[in-house]
Amino acid sequence: MARSLLVTGAAGFIGANFVHHWRAQHPEDRIVAYDALTYAGNRANLEALEGTEGFTFVHADICDQDAVFACLQAHDVDTLVHFAAESHVDRSITGPDAFIETNVVGTHSLLKAARDHWLAGDEPRPHRFHHVSTDEVYGSLAADAPGFYEEQKYEPNSPYSASKAASDHLVRAYLHTYGLQVSTSNCSNNYGPYHFPEKLIPLCLTNILRGLPLPVYGDGSNIRDWLYVADHCRGIEKVILDGVVGETYNIGGNNEWNNLDIVQLLCDQLDARFAADPSLSVRFPDAPQASGKSARDLIAFVEDRAGHDWRYAIDASKINGELGYSPAETFETGLAKTLDWYLSNESWWRPLLKN
């Protein structure tokens, strides 16, 4: 039976990748891409699907409960996949209000609209509300601590992670209070195509190509578990199709790297691309490789940010054991695919740069 999906934040990084993945795997399903098109939402991310049968784009805010409800009804939505969020920690430190509004109030708006759409009648309609969250709600790990697991105590340390923790609790409450059929996934750091160039990997990649410094917080020892975005989309798909209602699943990449090693690997991979393809020096004359230097020369250590968690890592044994999920990419292969995508899609990332 064909589904009708509403995907919030569908023009953002992970949302857009998910929409492309779901369309490729389930071409019979209808997809409504819902996005407010704030700074990180880019309709060009969905350009290949515009005008195709079964795809609709809705430009609206998740905080507008009436708009969400109207959309759910107009498209007879039975599956809501909620990506929409303010997600950049640095921005949450300088401007936390937007994070509370979108991540907490916006999620509650969606839950209320979904309840009205699916549970208002005498007979509840079959449905699923899947909420996409982050490992940052669990706080920070010590060097020798095991990875975050689903029953871990929440200890958010930034306005961003606190807002996501609040949204997780609201989703759980709507299951236990109203019977809304929900599931949640908490993921590790994503990377890949369509990643907005304020985040570490695309920022460093585009800075190298323009000959700009590569800012590394502190001494670069902060550790993250990195997940290629296509692998994340496969994990969410598994949860929606086979996951148990009311359960939380942690989706990780089994790829712990410190920030400095990531930046150095990216530099080395890009150095190798320039050495193998002389046309890159013509296309990117400001890159250090164009003048015979290494991208590593651009690394610049900067003052650490406030509330910077030292280590995140995911224990993905639950989704691995119960749903048979495992990531397909190593960090090296995923990073190579990401690098190649950015080199092939300069017209996508150039307009997004501040300088």
Automatic annotation (TrEMBL):
Source species, domain of life: Bacteria
Reaction(s) catalysed by this chain's protein: dTDP-alpha-D-glucose = dTDP-4-dehydro-6-deoxy-alpha-D-glucose + H2O
Cofactor(s) required for function per UniProt: NAD(+)
GO MF term set: dTDP-glucose 4,6-dehydratase activity
UniProt cross-references to CDD domains, sorted A to Z: dTDP_GD_SDR_e (cd05246)
GO annotation (BP), single: nucleotide-sugar metabolic process
Record's keyword annotation contains Coiled coil: no
InterPro entries: dTDP_Gluc_deHydtase, NAD(P)-bd_dom, NAD(P)-bd_dom_sf
Keywords for this protein: Lyase, NAD
Protein name: dTDP-glucose 4,6-dehydratase
